[in-house]
Each structure stands twice: as structure tokens, then as C-alpha cells.
Design goal:
Layout lengths: L7 H7 L5 E2 L6 E4 L3 E3 L2 E3 L18 E5 L4 E6 L5 E5 L4 E8 L9 E8 L4 E5 L3 E7 L5 E5 L17 E2 L12
Parallel strand pairs: 1-9
Antiparallel strand pairs: 2-10, 3-4, 5-12, 6-11, 6-13, 7-10, 7-12, 8-9, 8-11
């Protein structure tokens, strides 16, 4: 059904990749520019005229992650996530490329994002991702995925393969 993703648990269990550090193909990272004045600040997260039509957001949400808490690792078979990390708080973002047809298969990328490095990160399907709050205060994350959570009317299977529930997961957070 999805050409870039095969039987996910099976392919990772049969031949787990050994990850090396580097940038991941098709992941985009853009530093957020804040425009500040006496009222506060404003920052553009995305513009339709700057995004490929296939990743135009279908919904958006904001989440708060408490200090020391992680979300993920997980991946999507069809969904692209458009994350904005802008503070308050910092998170360590982790990405692993497990797409069989990717030129960067087996690459891991990690960086502290949020208050100290405000940025937008676009994570394509098949890239495992996680983040952990590494600050002493909660961190906010904005996400504008290109698919509805659980589909129209929340009646479909959630497009998410969770790796955090596996004790022997190859996806490790520092």
C-alpha cells in the first residue's frame, strides 16, 4: 500500500540497522525567525506557498511535554509531520531513517530544539522520530500533520507504528 514502507516490525526485527550520525534525506529543518516588538513576538510556522501540496496540513495541535518525559519513538506509514519547536523549554529531537529506499537509510540525527534553537522540522513517512524534554520546565510542541488523526471522523486506524513499547527497540534516547 505504501511503497516506501514494508512490513515494519518484521523488517526491523529481521535485520536491525546499525545507525550512524548524519542528516536525513527528505527531512527539512528551518530555523524560526522571531519578529519582536514591544507587544511580544510573532513567528511564521508555515505558508502554503512554501510547502509542497502533498504535505499541506490537515489539522494541527499543540502538546506540552514535562521535564524528563519522552514522546516516541514512533513512525508513520503515510503521514508527514510538520513540527514547530519554539519554547518555552527545550527538547532533544531524535530521527532515524529506516526507509529501505532512502539514500540515508541507517542514519540517526539528534539535536536540542525549542527555546534555544526554535525551528520547524518536517518529518516524512518512514522516519522514526521521538523527542524528550531536556529542560527544567515543560516544553511546547506544535504539529501540523498532513493527515487527520484516526482519519475522517476518527473512524480509521491510527497511522502510527510505536517503538517505545518494545524493550529491545533499536531506537535509543540519550
Amino acid at each position: 500500500m505504501f511503497p516506501h514502507v514494508t512490513e515494519i516490525p518484521q523488517r526491523l526485527m529481521n535485520n536491525p540497522p546499525t545507525f550512524t550520525e548524519g542528516m536525513i534525506h527528505d527531512v527539512t529543518i528551518r530555523e524560526i525567525t522571531r519578529f519582536a516588538d514591544s507587544r511580544g513576538w510573532l513567528a511564521e510556522i508555515f505558508r502554503h506557498d512554501e510547502l509542497s501540496v502533498d504535505i499541506h496540513p490537515a489539522m494541527c495541535y499543540v502538546s506540552e511535554t514535562l521535564p524528563g518525559i519522552a514522546r516516541g519513538p514512533h513512525e508513520h506509514t503515510d503521514q508527514t509531520d510538520l513540527f514547530a519547536f519554539f519554547g518555552p523549554g527545550d527538547l532533544k529531537l531524535y530521527l532515524w531513517d529506516v526507509r529501505n529506499d532512502s539514500p540515508t537509510f541507517g542514519i540517526r540525527w539528534a539535536k536540542t530544539v525549542g527555546e534555544t534553537f526554535p525551528c520547524v522540522v518536517v518529518v516524512p513517512p518512514g522516519v522514526v522520530h521521538a523527542y524528550k524534554c531536556v529542560s527544567d520546565k515543560p516544553a511546547l510542541v506544535f504539529n501540523a500533520p498532513n493527515r487527520l488523526y484516526a482519519g475522517e471522523g476518527k473512524k480509521e486506524k491510527v497511522d502510527e507504528v510505536r517503538h517505545e513499547e518494545s524493550a529491545d527497540s533499536v531506537f535509543r534516547l540519550d
